[in-house]
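Ticket 4471: requesting a sanity check on a complex prediction with fe (ii) ion. Repro inputs:
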Amino acid sequence: WSSGERHLRCTEGGKPRRQQVGHGRRPGGRLGVLRHARGAQGGVRLRRHPQPGPVRHQLQGRHQQGQVFPQALRQSPRPLGRLLANPTGNIQVSTWTSTFTRSTDESSQQLLTEQMLIGRKKMGTYAVEIQRLSIQLMGAIVQGLGLCPMHLQEKLGAGLQFMALNNYPQGSSRAGDTVGLAPHSDIGFITILLQSSPGLEVTHHDDGGVWTPVPAIPGALHVHLGDHLEVLSNGRLRSLLHRAILNTDEERISIASIHGAAIDEKVGCAEELVDERHPRMYRESSFHDFLDFLPTNVKAYRRFVETLKIDSA
Ligand SMILES: O=C(O)CCC(=O)C(=O)O
Ligand SMILES: [Fe+2]
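Returned structure tokens:
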């Protein structure tokens, strides 16, 4: 574990190795380095980059980029951090920042920073437990689809866990339902979400924009189906369209843990769910394809899964 302003250090067989993190592109650029680091023992962390670099930018992706969710993201959550963890709990990439809240003064920022340092260790434990839970849940979901429960175990075990810590400012009381995070569905198979207070809202795809608040039950975990589960199930399951609104009386924190296949692993429809009556509905894609898709999704937001539909132009 180590970090520097523009360096990334990873531990290989206990020996620290330092690599310059440039602005290179794949395969030799940051993603190449990160991919290598994922395979190496130990962990790797990026933090406090003065300018968001390509990877950080991509990983923070849709949460931060006003371009991706125009207008609505004006009030976007300030990410507390982003991290990727592997199933053994090594946090592979994190982008914790110390200036993570807009609405608190300097002393409370300092306090929060200290709490974050303590929290980082707890987050490691949380990441491992949540990953374990995701594998159990996916086993049940896959079985429910009539597939062998082991179907995805390997893919998930070697897969990607992407955690987003979102800090939403208090909304102005006059603003009513101010959107903190614009409507979207998550990539990956499932997302497990913990929220500190209400704010999460969901809609049925055919509802024509009727949003239902999800009550915040202390300690409850919310499970969202992601785009790749919609693909895997050949459309039998639909990914969850959701958004977050700002509370008028308090800030809000949520932790979303997205679980999917490895970054370059292509996910397609399960062959067992494709037949004459159920033709293949989606092209296969990887998490990486999703990252490449993000910059093209600037003007009008489109769910990634929509672009995978075989009949979509
Ligand atoms: O804050 C929330 O309730 C939702 C967060 C979310 O959807 C995400 O991070 O993908
Ligand atoms: Fe989400």
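Notes from triage: Residues 106-144 form the longest helix (39 residues). Leaving this open until the requester confirms.
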